[in-house]
Amino acid sequence: MMTQDAFCDAARQLLGDRGFTQDPELVDPWLTDWRGRYTGRAIGLASPASTAEVSALVKLCGEYGVPIVPQGGNSGMSGGATPDESGDALVLSLRRMNTITRFDEDAREITCEAGVILQTLHEKVEAHGLRFPLTLGGKGSATIGGLISTNAGGTQVLRHGSMRAQVLGIEAVMADGSVFDSLVPLKKDNRGFDLKQLLIGSEGTLGVVTGATLRLLPALAERAVMWAGLGDIRDARKLLVHAQKQAGDELEGFEVMPKHSLAAVLGHKHGARSPLQGTHEWNALIELGADASDADTLQDRAQALLESAFEAGLVEDATIAMNETQAEEFWMLRDEIAPAERALGPAMQHDISVPVASMADFVADTVPQVEERFPGTRAVAFGHLGDGNVHYHVLAPQGAMPGEWEASDGKVISAYVHDLVTQWGGSISAEHGIGQLKRDELARLGDPVQIAIMQQVKAALDPRGLLNPGKLVPLAPEASTH
Amino acid sequence: MMTQDAFCDAARQLLGDRGFTQDPELVDPWLTDWRGRYTGRAIGLASPASTAEVSALVKLCGEYGVPIVPQGGNSGMSGGATPDESGDALVLSLRRMNTITRFDEDAREITCEAGVILQTLHEKVEAHGLRFPLTLGGKGSATIGGLISTNAGGTQVLRHGSMRAQVLGIEAVMADGSVFDSLVPLKKDNRGFDLKQLLIGSEGTLGVVTGATLRLLPALAERAVMWAGLGDIRDARKLLVHAQKQAGDELEGFEVMPKHSLAAVLGHKHGARSPLQGTHEWNALIELGADASDADTLQDRAQALLESAFEAGLVEDATIAMNETQAEEFWMLRDEIAPAERALGPAMQHDISVPVASMADFVADTVPQVEERFPGTRAVAFGHLGDGNVHYHVLAPQGAMPGEWEASDGKVISAYVHDLVTQWGGSISAEHGIGQLKRDELARLGDPVQIAIMQQVKAALDPRGLLNPGKLVPLAPEASTH
Fold this sequence. Notes:
alpha+beta; Uridine Diphospho-n-acetylenolpyruvylglucosamine Reductase, domain 2; Uridine Diphospho-n-acetylenolpyruvylglucosamine Reductase, domain 3; Alpha-Beta Plaits; 4 domains; 5-stranded antiparallel β-sheet; globular
């Protein structure tokens, strides 16, 4: 306790009153993850104002042996930014570091501190006719640092890749307080290991991301948004291949949802309308985007794509949004699935991927398998078919007790789904990371070779284990024999 | 010696006569790098036929403490695949592992062993209407494993990225003989550190790449190749920005060369003709590429691009290749610069990058600086302006002694150029890697924080230092005090 007091005095000395607090009113909101699954305790909340302050703070934590939990917008899905219950750790918020430090329109690059919020970045570059090609539900709170640390995804990964693909340069404070400065964007650089790539997606366990240089793209001049009704998920896969062949780089999005999900949205969301007259086992939402040079013929190309797909027998019916309002309505149907499904009762949600080529077969095969194995449940898969990544929900049987069901039957179901995913060569975390939510599942199902390498790298770069302890990296077995 | 004999017996036992040899006639050709800069000695040449054999061999090397020098096509530029002179190391050739194991046209993915030659891969996929979007001069010998280990570049990086961007999955044997198997291509996978990225570009110092899954693209339906004469390198930068705005994703290549380089090619290559009537201080070679859907209007777009650039005062004169033959002639002028310059006498060649936005200024500023500092020399920069990467040659003064000059004055000049690049925030190795050629320069000029992290990762994953010793990773100082 004495040591904790001494640390807090030193931290306050270093960062000032704005930079360090123990006031429960200020600290407590950041001790629970936004989904409300985890609540921890902390020695205090640090909000440094600069990379130099982060560096000095990390060194101070090293001196006192204080564990550090880095935090951005606290909108992660896996509890990766929530401290444990010991109360030993410091929450290190990057939110005060929210300056855009360089913006080069011609080079289409922007450099900013880690605490810049995604939506702020969008607005900044859109005002200059550019766009940052990554977005997701939590854009109003998610920070650039958090998005990098979790290698966030979203609905534009199909064409533009995940956060990793947007990062041109990075700055991070390592466990010993040294500053890894690789902010200068070099398109080609072969001076050894790509440490930037190692830090992206490491969930704050190898270093604290303090800044980044990101790539930007020209604003889309126009988009064409289509809705197609399909008889079979395997036709969705064929339609995807067809669209990729015909639309090439213009294919911006390809999302699928089953009849059940669309019905749930139509029942849940006031004013929602189905884009098509009839009902279909599956629905696909397809978006093409065009730069200025190609905008005038985009609708024609969308029309041609749907006609040829219809002739090939891939779609039962289809339509193109007539205007931007209707395009927004189509996307709203997709975005409302999660809340609509949630309103139907308890469900286990899984953020999984398999190879893109296998996803249709995976869904077709495993949905009945899960429903048969756990009578009364309903399995619903929807989302980014083009990325081989679906949200795979298993809804509880009628009458299941919320809270109780998730902790008992739900756990068994999740383990079963994760087993299936692993058998299909897939990932138990496509987008949301491991955090504390899936660390034990990773230990259970991950490749032992890969886990061993992760442990070795972690031990090398953070030998005292002070950076985000308990997250992501499975613990080394107490007495390993292999 | 006894131990070496015992190792060789065991290796022969393991791999058979085709898999292990000490016959100088078979071994010697692989002990000198293809540029003839380095010659080493080796305990033998191992050519395993499978990943399992590589794994067993690496374990065997661990037992006997035999260092391993992995080798693909032996066409590297930095001596990274050549053993040292001790004769202690084993050359581990991957060339026998040359099977394409999976080819999925719809998914546009191919999985192959590390020893597959780049040109073989090109031919295989082109026969199916696809292309692998990376090529370089050594494509007839360079292997996929070598290209991955060095993160190779080429002339298509502008649009498609370097080798790193083509790799969807990887298989590698680690220092302890364990097999890192990440061949299954998951477009989204957030299960922790991206170890695949760590291995790419690590030059065999962290693991031996044994296989990969690569992305493919649709074949280009058409290309438009343009040649433009410019008054100033800074106009080339403006023309690049202009082309990126107007052509967007269609911009496949943007290369620049000064008057001197074009004159050298015209004087050196029989039958070579200048695309333009007059001479210009600088020349730009620009390529647009289009998929089938856009091919019909590509020439029009190229025409419009040049016209607007002319109106903006960016180009002095310009022309579009009328047919594929002429397009090949334009590219030949670019590809012949290196041999043509070489015929002019000794030169120090530098493979450097700075931020794309700074490259024109860097060339404009430093060329006169170098020529003034070293009287009688001529500095010539040409190549991938769109990547911020030029080949920066400094030609010896008239009468300099080949061989002698490079080792004396040439060394001083290279250090000077590397100093300049570092001051501009650039890289002393844009494409060719570090190998043994630039390891000391990396130690001299690299960021100490980054070097320390590299040393820590290397020590963690290869604690005995048996994987490609002496390459890439600067040695830790004997008695480090920081």
